[in-house]
# Entry
Amino acid sequence: MRILVVYATTEGQTRKIAERIAARISASGHVPTLVDATGAEPDLDLAAFDLAILAGSLHEGRYQAALVDFARRHASALNGCASAFVSVSLSAAGDDPGDWAGLARCVETFRSETGWSVARLHHAAGAFRFTRYDFLKSWAMRFIAYRRGESVDPHADTEYTDWDALDAFVDETVAAARPGPDAGP
# Structure
């Protein structure tokens, strides 16, 4: 199968996740095409792919504008083919009901803004990227970590992504998109 992986990233964790998705797809014998939404060709033909997986991270309750724009421009094609969305956030690292309700609202806003129905969804925990933050963002992120009861090193990155759960989601998504009698639901 030919599988499109489109991502948007701010500090790099979503790019790392998208690269992992593409590697998992390749290792299973399929052909991934990895595209950064900020440089996506406007005339990219989604009909050339058997599956599209989009990945974006939440910052202040919003996904990157380039990903929102890509999904909006291609909503009809995404709704008409096998597709999935990987939402990356620090909130996905915890089990606070309020955080999860907030994540659900963010995904619903994304659906509303783009017109893409997003049938398959995975919430992947992100990372604190202190090595990429300026002083103010580092301070704000340390405060967020403190409020969540997290102990972080402000001079190092802390990653929360559950790679096994991401791999399982990719495997299930590919299996569900595969044509034939052994395809998933």
Notes: The longest helix spans residues 97-114. Helices lie at 13-27, 65-73, 75-80, 97-114, 135-147, 163-177. The CA atoms of residues 50 and 179 lie 9 Å apart.
